[in-house]
Amino acid sequence: MFDLRMPIDLEHMEVVNLIESPTVEGLAILFLGENLEDNENNKPTIRVYLLKRIQGIFEIEKELYAFSFYNVNKALTFADNLPQMSALELLIDMNSVNQENIIH
């Protein structure tokens, strides 16, 4: 279990995943979901944040990237797969001309 200090302006987002760094003590990656309700008017977004542990509590250091999708299922599947993706797979997904999942 971990303690996370969530800024008030991010409290409306859903925690999708949190991964502590296996190599760097006190660093973690947080995945937050936005617009994850099934609603055609809003595009689901997965936001990725770098966390740093300060006095035993993880705090957001900065946002690393935001991925928007055409539907909730694709967003959650991407968030589940992202920790296992290689850097090359991620670059291809982020820059694919024929990308059906991610909105650029």
What this model shows, in words?
It is built from two helices and six strands. It has 104 residues and is α+β, with helices and mostly antiparallel strands. The chain has one domain. Strands 1, 2, 3, 4, 5 and 6 form a six-stranded mixed beta sheet that branches. The model has no long low-confidence stretch (mean pLDDT 86).
Helix/strand layout:
Elements: E1 4-5, E2 14-20, E3 27-34, E4 45-54, E5 57-69, H1 72-81, H2 87-95, E6 102-103
Parallel strand pairs: 1-5
Antiparallel strand pairs: 2-3, 3-4, 4-5, 5-6
Q: Element order, helices and strands? A: EEEEEHHE
Reported for the largest beta sheet, the result is: 6 strands, mixed
Number of strands: 6
| CA-based shape | globular
Structural class: alpha+beta
Helical stretch count?
2
Number of domains: 1
> Could you report the average pLDDT, rounded to the nearest whole number?
86
Quick take:
The protein is built from 2 helices and 6 strands; from the N terminus they run βββββααβ. With 104 residues, it is an alpha+beta fold.
Task: Offer a few descriptive terms.
six-stranded mixed β-sheet, 2 helices, 6 strands
